[in-house]
């Protein structure tokens, strides 16, 4: 059996199969995993055939919304919503240090905690 070695061709085929499956009433599988660590948390999202340009992340009032749209290669105006999830972030997440990285088909959103949430601080008692 001869393998297809043109990776760009394979990506395009996977993209179109995913597009036709979704248009035909199928579902594009998206897998989400949330990992909690001592210094923060991470949300990992895998979506078949979805590149980094198709994802959008919006932070508003402690709500983090992750969505992706599958755009048609023929018409930029045609898009199919694939994934939309909203998370309420806990108060210990430092909203100013949130990062998103897309690597090897996986979107990872890092949610670092405030330093005060990870390291205890002793408060001095004042005498009046």
Automatic annotation (TrEMBL):
InterPro entries reported in the protein's UniProt record: A-crystallin/Hsp20_dom, HSP20-like_chaperone
CDD domains in the cross-refs: ACD_sHsps-like (cd06464)
Domain SHSP: 22-128
Family the entry assigns: Belongs to the small heat shock protein (HSP20) family.
Designated name of the protein: Hsp20 family protein
Protein species of origin: Pontibacter qinzhouensis
